[in-house]
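Researcher: Going back to the complex we discussed earlier. I've cleaned up the inputs and rechecked each line, so this should be the final set. Can you rerun the prediction on the complete assembly and write out the structure?
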Amino acid sequence: MEKFTTIQSTIVPLPIEDVDTDQIIPARFLKATTKEGFGQNLFRDWRYNEDNTPKADFVMNDPRYSGKVLVAGKNFGCGSSREHAAWAIGDAGFRVVVSSFFADIFRGNALNNGILPVQVSDAFLAEIFSAVNANNKMELIVDLQNQFIQIAGTEKKESFAINEYKKTCLINGYDDIDYVLSQKDKIEAYEKSSKYLSFVS
Amino acid sequence: MGKTLFEKVWDAHVVTEVKDGPSILYIDKQLIHEVTSPQAFAGLGKRGIGVFRPERTLATPDHNVPTKGQALPIKEELSRKQVDTLTDNCNKYGVTLFGLGHPSQGVVHVVGPETGTTLPGMTIVCGDSHTSTHGAFGSIAFGIGTSEVEQVLATQCLMQSKPKTMKIEINGTLGKGVTSKDIVLYVISKISAAGGTGYFLEFCGTAITSLTMEARMTICNMSIEMGARGGMIAPDETTFNYIKGREFAPKGDKWEAAVAYWKTLYSDADATFDRVLSYDAADIEPMITYGTNPGMGIKVSGSIPSIEQVEESNKLTFNKALEYMGFKEGEKIAGKQVNWVFLGSCTNGRIEDLRTFANFVKGKKKAANINALIVPGSKQVERQAIAEGIDKVLADAGFELREPGCSACLAMNEDRVPKGEYCVSTSNRNFEGRQGPGARTLLVSPLTAAAIAVSGKIVDVREFMN
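Model: Rerun complete. Updated structure for the full complex:
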C-alpha cells in the first residue's frame, strides 16, 4: 500500500448526499478479476451518456475542477460492500474523500486501499463548497500526522478523527493482513476454545 | 451489568485486541461468491500463502449467473470468466463450492440458512453487504470488502472496531396486507438510509418474534439499507425448529449442546444499548419507495413528500431523485403505471415469498403491460416451488419461474429493466441504475408486488382483501 503523507490539492466538489456505491461504480463494471482500471468507470452513469460521450454538467467533465481530493455530501459510499468503489476512486487519482458522514463499509475499504476518508462537520463541509464556488482553484491541506484539514491560505481548519492503528497503517503503508498473520499462535489457541467449532467439527 | 445479544456473541469471538485499535475477531464462516473474491485469492498468491482454514469458507456463484439455461455455458464472456475463476480458486485452495448445476447453488444469503450453515451465535462474513441477512439467527453477520475477504482467507480472522448497539423494538400486531418487508421499509423511512450507520442493530418485540425465519431474514437483510453493518434477532424456538435437521446443522448430542448454548443468546434485561427505538406495528401500512435510496419510502396509500418537508442540505438530492424517477413532489403514488415486476433476491427470494406471490395471483392473470421476472433464491427453493406446484400456478396466471441467482436485483446478468421503465421490486436497493442503466426501481413486499403484477399499476394490496 502506498504511504500517505500530507496532501495539498485542488478539489473535485460533488455536493450530492447519499452517494451510493452503485453510482461510484455500477454493478455491470464489476466483472473484472483484477483491481486495475476501474477509474475509467468511476461515476459512469453520471459522467457519460449512453453513447460514451461525456456529460458536460458532471463535475469530473468540467475542466475547472481536478485534484486528489473528492468532496461529497453526507453519507458517502452507502450501499454495497464492493471494494471496487474504493479501487475506482483511487485509480482515478484521488487520495482523500471528504464528507460529513461516511458509510461504514466504504470507510474501511478506503482505508485498506490507502485512501483517507476525512469526516468533517456539516458546517465545514458547507464552507468548503462555498469556497470552491468562489474559487475553483481553491486547495485543501490534509495533514494526517496532525489530523487536521484546512482550506489553504485561510485560517479555516478542522481536526478530524482516525483510529490510531489505522493512522499508523496509512502513514507506513502497512496492511491488516501482515499484522493478523503475525498473531497465528493466538488464533490457533482461540480455536481450541471455540463453542461453535465444538458443535460443527 | 448485563450484556446485549451482540456483546455476548462479539465477546465470544475476540481472539485478541490491538492496543488503541480494533479487535481481532474470529470468523466462524466466510461465504464467498464470484464478484468480490477473485482479487482476494490473487492477493494470497502475491503473498505466497494459502487459505488458513479452507473448511471455514463456502462458495457459490450468484451475482452473474443467467436465470435461464444454466446448464449451458454462460454466454457473456466476462461473467463466465468470473464464475470459472471462482471454480478454479475453490479447486486450488480446497474450498467447498456449490457451483452452477449443484443442487445447493443459489444466492449466497439464501444458501447459508437453508443448508444449516448459518447457526445462532456465529460470526459470518461475506464480500456482500447483505450478509446482514444471517443475523436473523442471532449471529453477527456483516458484509466486508475484498481486502477483508483476503484477510479472512489468510487468517480466519478480521480486524474490527466494536460498533455501537441499537435496539429497534416493534410491538403489536401487523395489519392486513402488512408483511416483514413493510416493517423494514417503514423503519428505514423513519431513520433514513444513514440512520443506523455505526451501529449493530437488534430487532425485537412481539411483531418480530411472531415472524417466521424467512420474514426475519428479510428484516435483517435490509439492516444495511439504514447504514448498519448488521442486525440481529435473538434465537428462539422458531429459529431452532427451522435449523433442526438441515444438512450442516449439528446432530445428536451436539445438537442438544448447541441448543443449550443458543438459549443463552439474548439481551439481558439490564443490558444497555447506545440507542433505542420503538414502533407500534399497528402504525405500519403496505410500503413503497418513491426515490433513489431505500430511506425514501412512503405508504402505498400515501403521497410523495413536498419539497418543504425535506431538510435544506438534502433538497438537491431529493430533487435529483424525483427527476430521475419522473415523479413530482407531493403527488399520490397509487395509480401510476408500472411495466416491470421483479420477485426474488436475498431479500425476498425464499420459498415463503414465492408462496405469497403465487397464492395471490392464483386464479388471476398477469396484467397485459407487465413484464415479470420471478426468480427463486436457490436450487432448493426452485425444487420446493416445483414440488408445491407453484410453477404451475404462476404459469396459469401468465408468469414464468426462472432459475436461481441475484438477477435483476443488481442487473449483472441479462435480467435488466430498460431505461426509463418503472419496476416494482422485492429486492433491497432502489439506487439509480441498480436494475439497469436508467431503470426506475420501487421497492415493495412480495404481496404488494403480486397485487401490482395483476393490476399493471401501483395499488394498495388491501383493496383486494375486503
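Model: Worth noting: Chain A is about 35% helix and 15% strand.
Researcher: Good, that matches what I expected from the previous run.
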